[in-house]
């Protein structure tokens, strides 16, 4: 496994003055680790036997995922839980990461708060918990067993197996045994910890649900899970593209707190306030720094260490008066529309999935980004409340749903116009839908130290609502389209089955020849029906999506219609027949002209490079006819 | 003559098919128009003194899938009826429903739909379903009283019998066809007709000898009366001039039974003049009776309240008497059965209640 992830700037500014890590470290000086552990069980996530199991899995899996991502390896993670006796289990988690050099193994697994990235500001899973060493400690305290780690760093290298304990008085790891062993893996790490815990599959907050939720937002990971009954579950990888590597950034000036600004100034190594602003904040240029000083009426030559409270607060105000670019967002790691959709489709068999990745933005100087997805139909139960899958920095949140900004975002929307039921237009809606919300940030503002729900930060709430509404509109369009298709089916039944029979039978009753029904058909339908078929195929490793749009003029008049087909920007446009009248970014436009009554026309095109499920129905808009005379596309 | 009626029916039915066919030829969307069959579209006919359908029409256009199916089924029914008339057969409504199993996509989803369509065709062709050789499966109800009837039986023989002396305790069973070619009233020696909702009360009056003691003809309605029962009462009233009173439970459903006897039912408003007896009067149990006779009661159910409220806007119950009684019942939130009179003993209904009520109504002196 990689460097142990240690709690870092885990608490939002303003909630607790100092990062929790500092406080925990201080605590550790005073009391023995064991005592500390006992006192802080609830913060560390070991307050019940069920929760202990989940926390252990969560820490170990997060650690494994981070290890792989760090080295840009597609994660292959194997989780196994074996029962030793009642309420005692062995948890093993294995990854295909870069491995750990022999000497570092004890430090990484056996030392609380050991890490290398203390002050980096970036989005990382480690924010979520206390770390793998806490699990090692928990296992040791509850079972007395040492933890076993096997790690291998390269093909030609031996694997090392280490049994380790933590010296709880000194907070130091103690390797009981280190041995070179043979391991069939080129590289990777496996950790086995005995813990007192409880396993239940049926619970909403279970290991299975956790891994499933993890798989959804980590479509690049392949996760297998063997439960205590020997049952194996596989969450397969659906994309070869790993998430972009994140980089560390400096704090962004917008919304930073006065206290933080003063503290930063005091400990700054710069000689001038302008240099301090340029060097220690992101997105401040020399020019902006001078402008800030001017607006704040602060001498630009002032030593930052001498800045007083009044000056600091004027600087703070000035931050909002000048134009400052949004913080760099490469410190964030969004999952992305397409990958989210893939993750969702992989785990949930739904007819419709739509996702929105909002542009990154800022709260209190912290970049954050919201991603929302909605799935609808298929296997999802119609009568149940909509399930909300919550994530912070790609880690599923399983507890404290009611207090989370993500839940509040869902509850604050009147879902009825979007086709879901909802009592009084507020609260969690009911219907065959599921919502997924991911908040990624360098500093996720959790409501409490147990890090299970995100605080009601207005900026985050608003981003969530905007994204939800966009998804909801798409869902509604899908529902409308489904209803229209039902109507089309009825019309077809009418003109293809019932009318011919009616003509035949009425003629038979009065002893005449069967009359022609064509004119009546066009009068009854009085629509142009647009029907799209999407097919996916793979030829020589190239992926083709063929879209066939069929137009049938079931009106008594000749018709012209302009059709706009939205296509994913990621896709390359292949063959088109006929050639589009116009091509724009993510848009193909055709003019279908002079269609005679009952005439059929086709527009066929290929998209290259999309996976199955990326594009399942054509997104069609039209112009040139009245809305009530067209079925199968939305008016532009 | 019967054959003329059949000819008229066939002509009317074929005209429907012809219209559909002509619509196709002209390129028009085939349709069929019939009166709206709800309480919103019934009006009092001053000449016939019964409630008939008004002028509101509903259009069944082949534009709608459901209506297109109805039109198609109509074609099949027309074909089927014409065939029955040709081969001198008849069928029950239920049999027709089952026969439609062979009509492929035109088969009926349920018997209610086929019954309603048969009624629609009566309305459009101004014929009776008997003219279509269709009959209901339900039998008519029973009669006991000093009435002499002549019936043509299934062998074509004329049989004459007295509905008091020549029948058992269950009385004379009214056949489904009570038209003149089948049934005639030969002799009547009675003062009035009592139409009774429940079998229990009918049997009580028979056991107590009410028909003989009070010179009454007792007719059992069996709940909502069949067409033949209503037609029988109507002819008895018209041809013998005997006054008719209706004796039912005291609840909203019973008021509807009375309305169908006296005013015409909404479902069969197209033939109200054949079926309704405009001079029939409501005897009880009235909501006032419940109060005056201190009868044992039940609380109104939600459906009862809904039915009563619906009756308040039913034009047939628009007069002062019914509006008052219905509102009274809603206020007291109670209902009673006819047999609740047994509270005062088995003879109370014949010794006290009926004589009192009939005297109030001026039928007994």
CATH topology of the largest domain in chain A: Heat Shock Protein 90
* Beta strand count of chain A: 24
Q: Any idea of the CATH class of the largest domain in chain A?
A: Alpha Beta
* CATH architecture classification name of the largest domain in chain A: 2-Layer Sandwich
Task: Output the number of helix runs of chain B.
Answer: 13
Low-confidence stretches of chain B: none
Q: Could you estimate the helical fraction of the residues of chain B in percent?
A: 40-55%
Largest sheet, strands/sense/barrel of chain A: 8 strands, mixed
Mean pLDDT of chain A: 84
Q: Helix tally of chain A?
A: 15
Strand order of the largest sheet of chain B: 10-7-13-12-14-15
For the largest interface, the chains and their residue counts are: A-B, 24 and 26 residues
Radius of gyration of chain B: 22 Å
- Tell me the CATH superfamily of the largest domain in chain A: Histidine kinase-like ATPase, C-terminal domain
Provide the gyration radius of chain A in Å: 30 Å
Q: Report the average pLDDT across residues of chain B.
A: 92
Description:
By secondary structure, chain A is α+β, with helices and mostly antiparallel strands. Chain A has four domains: 33-235, 2-Layer Sandwich (Heat Shock Protein 90); 253-319, Helicase, Ruva Protein, domain 3, CATH 1.10.8; 337-477, Ribosomal Protein S5, domain 2, CATH 3.30.230; 516-635, Immunoglobulin-like (Sandwich). Chain A is built from 15 helices and 24 strands. Chain A has an eight-stranded mixed beta sheet with strand order 5-4-3-6-2-1-7-8. In chain A, strands 9, 10, 11, 12, 13 and 14 form a six-stranded mixed beta sheet that branches. Chain A has a five-stranded mixed beta sheet with strand order 18-21-16-15-23. In chain A, 44% of the residues are buried. By secondary structure, chain B is an alpha/beta fold. In chain B, helix 1 packs antiparallel against helix 2, helix 3 crosses helix 4 and helix 11 (302-312) packs antiparallel against helix 12. Chain B has helices at 2-26, 65-86, 93-99, 111-125, 199-207, 210-213, 227-240, 252-262, 272-275, 287-292, 302-312, 320-332, 348-360, and strands at residues 31-35, 42-45, 50-53, 57-61, 91-92, 134-135, 142-144, 147-152, 158-162, 172-173, 183-188, 192-196, 216-220, 244-247, 281-284, 298-299, 334-335. Chain B starts with a helix and ends in a 5-residue tail after the last helix. Chain B folds into two domains: 2-135, Orthogonal Bundle (Arc Repressor Mutant, subunit A); 142-360, Dna Topoisomerase Vi A Subunit, Chain: A, domain 2, CATH 3.40.1360. Chain B has 13 helices and 17 strands.
């Amino acid at each position: 496994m990689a460097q142990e992830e240690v709690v870092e700037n885990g608490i939002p500014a303003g909630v607790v003055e100092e990062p929790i890590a500092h406080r925990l470290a201080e605590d550790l000086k005073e009391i023995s680790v064991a005592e500390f552990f006992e006192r802080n069980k609830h913060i560390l996530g070991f307050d019940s036997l069920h929760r202990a199991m989940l926390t252990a899995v969560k820490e170990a899996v997060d650690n494994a995922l981070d290890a792989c991502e760090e080295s840009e390896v597609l994660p292959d993670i194997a989780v196994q839980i074996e029962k030793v006796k009642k309420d005692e289990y062995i948890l093993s988690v294995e990854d295909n990461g870069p491995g750990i050099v022999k000497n570092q193994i004890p430090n990484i697994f056996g030392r609380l708060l050991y890490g290398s990235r203390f002050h980096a500001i970036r989005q990382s899973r480690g924010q979520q918990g206390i770390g793998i060493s806490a699990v090692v400690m928990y296992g040791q305290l509850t079972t007395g067993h040492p933890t076993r780690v096997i790690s291998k760093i390269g093909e030609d290298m031996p694997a090392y197996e280490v049994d380790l304990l933590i010296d709880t008085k000194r907070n130091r790891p103690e390797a009981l045994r280190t041995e070179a062993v043979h391991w069939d893996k080129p590289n990777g790490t496996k950790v086995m910890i005995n813990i007192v815990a409880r396993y239940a599959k049926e619970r909403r907050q279970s290991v299975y649900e956790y891994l499933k939720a993890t798989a959804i937002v980590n479509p690049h990971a392949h996760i297998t899970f063997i439960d205590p009954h020997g049952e194996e579950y596989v969450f397969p990888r659906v994309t070869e593209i790993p998430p972009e590597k994140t980089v560390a950034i400096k704090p962004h000036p917008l919304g930073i707190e006065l206290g933080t600004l003063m503290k930063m100034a005091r400990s700054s190594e710069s000689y001038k306030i302008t240099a301090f602003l340029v060097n220690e904040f992101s997105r401040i240029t020399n020019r902006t720094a001078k402008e800030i000083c001017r607006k704040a009426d602060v001498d630009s030559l002032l030593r930052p260490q001498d800045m007083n409270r009044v000056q600091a607060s004027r600087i703070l105000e000035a931050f909002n008066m000048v134009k400052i670019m949004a913080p760099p967002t490469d410190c964030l790691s969004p999952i992305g529309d397409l990958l989210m959709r893939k993750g969702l489709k992989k785990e949930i068999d739904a007819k419709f999935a739509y996702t929105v990745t909002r542009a990154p933005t800022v709260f209190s100087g912290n970049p954050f980004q919201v991603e929302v997805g909605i799935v609808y139909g298929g296997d999802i139960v119609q009568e149940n409340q909509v399930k909300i899958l919550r994530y912070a920095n790609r880690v599923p949140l399983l507890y404290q749903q009611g207090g989370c900004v993500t839940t509040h975002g869902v509850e604050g929307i009147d879902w009825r116009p979007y086709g879901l039921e909802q009592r009084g237009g507020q609260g969690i809606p009911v219907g065959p839908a599921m919502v997924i919300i991911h908040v990624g940030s360098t500093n996720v503002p959790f409501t409490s130290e147990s890090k299970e729900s995100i605080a009601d930060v207005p900026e985050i709430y608003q981003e969530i609502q905007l994204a939800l509404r966009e998804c909801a509109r798409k869902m509604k369009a899908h529902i409308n389209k489904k209803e229209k298709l039902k109507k089309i089916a009825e019309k077809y039944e009418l003109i293809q089955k019932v009318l011919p029979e009616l003509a035949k039978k009425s003629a038979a009753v009065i002893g005449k020849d069967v009359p022609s029904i064509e004119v009546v058909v066009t009068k009854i339908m009085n629509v142009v029906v647009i029907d799209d078929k999407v097919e996916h195929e793979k030829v020589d490793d190239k992926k083709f999506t063929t879209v066939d749009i069929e137009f049938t003029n079931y009106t008594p008049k000749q018709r012209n219609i302009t059709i706009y087909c939205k296509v994913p920007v990621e896709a390359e446009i292949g063959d088109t027949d006929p050639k589009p009248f116009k091509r724009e970014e993510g848009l193909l436009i055709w003019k279908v002209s002079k269609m005679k009554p009952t005439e059929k026309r086709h527009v066929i095109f290929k998209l290259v490079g999309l996976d199955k499920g990326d594009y399942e129905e054509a997104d069609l808009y039209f112009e040139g006819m009245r809305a009530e005379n067209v079925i199968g596309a939305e008016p532009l | 003559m019967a054959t003329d009626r059949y000819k008229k029916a066939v002509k009317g039915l074929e005209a429907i098919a012809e219209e559909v066919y002509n619509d196709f030829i002209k390129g028009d969307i085939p349709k069929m128009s019939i009166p709206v069959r709800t309480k919103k579209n019934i009006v009092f006919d001053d000449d016939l003194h019964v409630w008939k359908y008004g002028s509101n029409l509903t259009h069944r256009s082949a534009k709608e899938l459901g209506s297109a199916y109805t039109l198609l089924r109509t074609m099949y029914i027309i074909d089927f009826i014409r065939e029955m008339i040709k081969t001198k057969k008849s069928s029950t409504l239920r049999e027709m429903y089952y026969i439609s199993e062979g009509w492929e996509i035109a088969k009926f989803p349920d018997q209610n739909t086929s019954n309603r369509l048969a009624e629609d065709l009566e309305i459009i062709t101004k014929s009776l379903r008997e003219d279509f050789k269709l009959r209901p499966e339900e039998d008519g109800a029973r009669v006991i009283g000093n009435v002499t009837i002549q019936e043509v039986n299934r062998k074509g023989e004329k049989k004459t019998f007295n509905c008091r002396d020549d029948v058992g305790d269950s009385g004379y069973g009214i056949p489904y066809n009570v038209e003149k070619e089948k049934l005639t009233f030969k002799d009547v020696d009675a003062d009035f007709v009592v139409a009774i909702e429940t079998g229990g009360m009918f049997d009580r009056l028979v056991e107590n000898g009410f028909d003989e003691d009070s010179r009454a003809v007792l007719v059992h309605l069996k709940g909502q009366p069949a067409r033949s029962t209503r037609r029988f009462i109507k002819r008895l009233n018209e041809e013998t001039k005997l006054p008719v009173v209706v004796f039912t439970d005291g609840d909203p459903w019973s008021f509807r039974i009375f309305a169908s006897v006296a005013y015409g039912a909404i479902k069969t408003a197209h033939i109200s003049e054949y079926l309704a007896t405009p001079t029939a009067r409501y005897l009880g149990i009235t909501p006032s009776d419940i109060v005056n006779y201190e009868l044992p009661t039940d609380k109104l159910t939600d459906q009862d309240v809904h039915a009563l409220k619906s009756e308040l806007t039913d034009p047939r119950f628009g007069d002062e008497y019914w509006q008052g009684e219905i509102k009274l019942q809603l206020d007291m939130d109670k209902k009673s059965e006819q047999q609740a009179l047994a509270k005062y003993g088995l003879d109370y209904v014949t010794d006290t209640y009926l004589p009192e009520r009939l005297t109030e109504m001026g039928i007994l002196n």
